[in-house]
Design a protein that fits this description.
alpha+beta, 605 residues, seven-stranded parallel beta sheet, Immunoglobulin-like, Jelly Rolls, globular, single chain, 33 strands, TIM Barrel
Length: 605
């Protein structure tokens, strides 16, 4: 909840610590101290020389938008502190508080911790506010301290100001250094004991998310990324990591790394896909495999993982991307070393290695890969990054271009650049293509990712493509998120032939249950004109199915305006509505509206 926990990001636009001295008549100051840090670059020094009052720092979270605090709910965390040279012999009291609109003078919850030991000391705290805080919608220019990104108009976004903040202060003569301040909701709001907001994961599950890729440009293109994104720098407790303070563009990423993501995915039953820097040596990446999978009883790296994680359980991760949107000239050597280590750990053939460029390996590197024994073609995947769709076509072209090398493919980024209903139409049509591919191509395609699972509604940025949005006080689906929800709630595993007449531009796919008891049809009309279509379902040999006695249910995700989106105040403006359709002997007739995604589920007698 507190952004810039270790005072590393001088000038970070996404959130900062406010410094204060109250009243102004006391002699005191707050300073960011680069020469005296618990670990990393900087700490903050709080000092009072004379007078009665308080000196402290306050944090309002991401974008300085303020904290949404719930009444009578616990919040907990820790910080590291050390007595300064001006501290009295008896030590110093540090006040930790949650505050509302009235500020430092009227905390909603506070606790005082006495610091007496001479070295850096971890201080744990728990706070339960007596009343909650509210969030108000503001215009981007109303409060310059709140960062709403680029002040452009985009439906679904909101600039909000919540009235909670977190403060650390002193009130007596002396000084203390403060470093690495961490705040989170109590277990009531988290996924188990992980630092993960449970309500956000529930949205992921509603959308049917089965895989999450962590990675992208920050693993390959940020200044110094080769230095800070070595996987070893993200192990151990967060406050002791060399990656503390790591930034990508204007985003702080140091507090959340690949292993937190893997742990979250493992807890949710979601497949994690991690992207690491291509600059790692083959031996280093082999050690990563061992760190994730080895038995602590027989491996030093396995014991390190168990100590880091607090459990002997492995990090269950099988997809590793070795770089991002670049040519990795070490890829074959890295894969060979990782697979050799995996084999030694009893995981032969179970891991997948993503090559980080749409064009895959050069002819010379393919020749090198063909000499591996055993061949690892099928475990090597090309990672295809596309715009709103087209991953299947790109994969088929690559497979045709390399008929003697049986690599797989994944579509780990779909950068449509929008979150509106038009994105919903792109998602639905592209997913129809994925669900209609032939068996030989299907066997080589591993996954498709929608970029991004979530985006901040409080940040108008150039990557405005979250299929769900969040604010400090809530999370909700955008229209493309509802496409995924509809697919997840009606999923069937086997493709089925289908005939559609009356709409030549209609995108369609059909699937059925393994025992044939359920059939699903998915139709997309990405046109401003309504279409009347007839649907005939076929069996695998092309013979029309008999639907006598069947039961039909249908839903439509539709908006007349392709730029429509869901706001925080009206989160279901564009959401599925149930349809009443006629059941015919071999299918149905559908009046598709403009910009319409219709899903039909038939329970076959």
């Amino acid at each position: 909840m507190a952004v810039d926990e270790s005072f590393e990001a001088d000038g970070f636009r996404g959130g900062k610590w406010a410094q204060w001295v109250e009243p102004s008549t006391i002699v005191g100051n707050v300073s960011r101290t680069t020469g005296h840090a618990f670990h990393g670059v900087a700490s903050t020094k709080l000092q009072i020389t004379s007078g009665a009052g308080r000196v402290g720092v306050s944090n309002k979270g991401l974008g300085n938008a303020g904290l949404f605090l719930q009444a009578n709910k616990s919040y907990e965390g820790y910080l590291f502190a050390q007595l300064g040279p001006e501290a009295p012999a008896g030590g110093m009291d540090i006040m930790i508080s949650l505050e509302g609109a009235l500020g430092h003078g009227s905390p909603l919850a506070s606790t005082s911790v006495t610091l007496q030991l001479p070295g850096w000391t971890r201080l744990n705290f728990s706070l339960t506010p007596s009343t909650g805080t509210q969030c108000d919608t503001i215009q981007p220019a109303d409060d310059p301290s709140v960062d709403c990104g680029n002040p452009i108009s985009s439906i679904g976004h909101a600039c909000v100001q919540c009235h909670g903040q977190f403060s650390v202060s002193i009130s007596s003569v002396g000084s203390v250094y403060v470093d690495y301040v961490f705040l989170q909701p109590g277990s009531w709001a988290r996924l188990g004991e992980l630092p993960v907001l449970k309500s956000a994961t529930e949205v992921l599950k509603v959308m049917g998310v089965t895989g999450i890729r962590q990675g992208g440009s920050y693993a390959s293109r940020a200044p110094g990324s080769a230095a800070y994104y070595q996987w070893q720098d993200w192990t151990g407790p967060p406050w002791a990591r060399p990656s503390r303070g790591a930034q990508w563009n204007e985003c702080l990423i140091g507090g959340w790394g690949p292993f937190e993501m893997i742990a979250m995915c493992n807890a949710l039953g979601i497949e994690p896909i991690i992207t690491t820097t291509e600059s790692s040596t083959p031996d280093s990446l082999a050690d990563l495999v061992e760190y994730c999978w080895a038995d602590p009883a027989s491996s030093a790296l396995g014991r390190q993982r168990a100590n880091d994680r607090g459990t002997p359980a492995p990090y269950n991760v099988t997809y590793f991307e070795l770089g991002n949107e670049q040519y990795n000239s070490l890829f074959v050597e890295q894969v060979e070393a990782m697979e050799k280590r995996a084999t030694a750990l009893g995981k032969r053939g179970e891991l997948r290695y993503l090559f980080p460029s749409n064009n895959f390996l050069s002819d010379s590197d393919i020749a090198k890969a063909e000499k591996l024994s055993p061949r690892l073609d099928a475990q090597m995947l090309v990672d295809l990054h596309v715009l709103g769709g087209g991953g299947v076509t790109a994969a088929e072209a690559l497979f045709a271009a390399h008929p003697d090398f049986a690599m797989g493919a994944a579509n780990a980024e779909t950068n449509a650049g929008t979150h509106t209903h038009q994105r919903a139409m792109l998602e639905a049509a592209d997913l129809n293509e994925w669900m209609s591919i032939n068996a030989s191509t299907q066997a080589r395609l591993h996954f498709r990712a929608a970029s991004f699972c979530m985006g901040s509604a409080n940040d108008f940025d150039r990557w405005d493509q979250g299929i769900s949005f969040f604010l400090p006080n809530g999370t909700w689906l955008q229209p493309p998120g509802y496409v995924h929800q509809l697919i997840a709630s009606t999923w069937q595993p086997f493709a089925l032939p289908v005939e559609v007449t009356g709409g030549s531009t209609t995108s369609v796919s059909a699937q059925q249950a393994a025992n044939g008891s359920v059939v699903v049809v998915r139709l997309v009309n990405d046109s401003p004109q309504p279409l009347n279509v007839s649907v005939v379902l076929l069996n695998a040999t092309g013979v029309p199915l008999l639907l006598d006695g069947a039961r039909l249910t249908a839903w439509s995700l539709q908006a007349d305006d392709p730029d429509a989106a869901n706001t925080a105040g009206a989160p279901s403006t564009v959401s599925p509505t149930e349809l009443s359709l006629p059941l015919e002997r071999h299918g149905t007739s559908v009046a598709l509206k403009a910009f319409d995604y219709t899903v039909i589920e038939i329970q076959v007698s």
